[in-house]
Predict the 3D structure of the following.
Amino acid sequence: MTALPPPATAPAGWYPDPYTGGFRYFDGRQWTGPAVPSVPGATPTLEPKPEHPSLPFSVAIGALVVLTVSLIVGKIVVDVLVDADWPLGVYIFVAAIVSYGPSIAWGFYVRRRFGAGSFASIGWRPRWSDLGWGPLTWLTAVLSQAVMAAIILALDIPFTSNIDDGEVTGDDRTYVVALLAAAVVAAPLVEEMVFRGIVLRGFLSRMPAVAALLAQGVLFGAAHIDPARGTGNIGLVMVLSTVGVVLGGSAYLFRRLGPPMLAHAILNGVALTLVLTGALDGVESPFEFLL
């Protein structure tokens, strides 16, 4: 005896809502989203935008703890090994592995535990359109940095760039390659996965979207604090928090990490290129804030 086919349901589309008098979308399995008002002579045609995916709040806290501890350990390891007189590229590689490795492992755990093994559960769903939206996100981030830089200058807030052109030079090719790989590849992939793929989605399970975007942005800025910069961290955190909010907004709107990852890579790539080539040597603020 052959099995009977599953019962057919109505096709996906908009249908009259008997409770509100408007229309509500049926995705072929269930009703989704709120009803929309009825307009005489018109019927909705576009599929409603789905709610932003979320993760348990504890997952976001776990990601922050893992990243914080690994960044501290990475700095300690490099400080311990600094007397070994190894090539600078080796130190960058070691720091990247120690600082980012645990966060990558956490991302794989979240994917397996809460996303049925799918990378889409943490926002990794690349699309060809990301090649266009990424640069637009980058431009928005640069403009937001410029606005924040003007505020910092006007209020005379201490600021120290996280790229020291006295330490970053292009004399050692291995060092340059390692630095670019860490800043343009590793940092965007890992930091976007943590802050926009896990933290933002975890916060969305407990907070309104605006609060979640602001919180993850500030935490992104705070992740770049270095005690060696002293009060200069204040302005730096303000600038990078602004960038974090923009990147978070991009991830929220597109429901994926492609655009903010690409924007993050462009930001770091442009900043390092300007410093390594000496293009802005002797140029005073506010241009240094954009690095």
About this structure: Residues 229 and 288 are 15 Å apart (CA to CA).
